[in-house]
Amino acid sequence: MRSFRIHLLFSAMVSLTCLLTGAWPAWGADSVPSAARIGVVNVDRVFKEYKATQSKEKELEKVSTGKVEEREKMVSEIRNLRDELALLNEENRAKQRQAIEEKLRQLALFDQQAKESLRDQKEQAVDGLLKEIEQVVTSFAKERGYDLILSNRAVLYGVETVDLTNEVISILNQRYAKAAPSGER
Questions:
Q1: How many alpha carbons fall within 13 Å on the CB side of residue 67?
Q2: pLDDT digit string, tens, across residues 93-141
Q3: Do 36 and 65 meet the contact criterion of CB atoms below 8 Å apart?
Q4: Would you list the domain boundaries of the chain?
Q5: 3-class secondary structure, 12
Q6: Angle between helices 51-85 and 90-144 (to 10 degrees)
Q7: CATH of domain 2-184
Q8: Is 162 in contact with 152 (CB distance < 8 Å)?
Q9: Is 158 in contact with 33 (CB distance < 8 Å)?
């Protein structure tokens, strides 16, 4: 997500600079509209208020809770093995210690895999949601005749009338409501 934001910020700044200076690459200065329509979108707010984002967060939370419960079972097994250790004779203690060490290795591997899996799932979800947002913003811009829509992070000053954030959130959430199963709305 960080690289997407850096790319978005860089692209917005280059586009704005080219638009304002008339140095529009590949098309020439004659192709730049004389009165460009420019809008601004708060991508962070759109992301947070998009119902699909909230749904994905709940989904990931369920997955995370499942992993925590699974881990707790593994830890409980290790505790039980340790508790039984004192009751065993020397020969069986050695076997029990090996079993405990194996369970600890399994627990460490589980922790690593669970962390990686959750991170990967979150990254995929964020990437997918940002692509959806980008598609809606692009479609919105084309339909409404905007020449340039910038992230609010690339704008130092702008009047509220160019802020399109609420409209984008509304479109995304309406689209989500139509597509989502009735229990997720």
A1: 18
A2: 889 999 999 999 999 999 999 999 999 999 999 999 999 999 999 999 9
A3: no
A4: 2-184
A5: helix
A6: 180
A7: 3.30.910.20
A8: no
A9: no
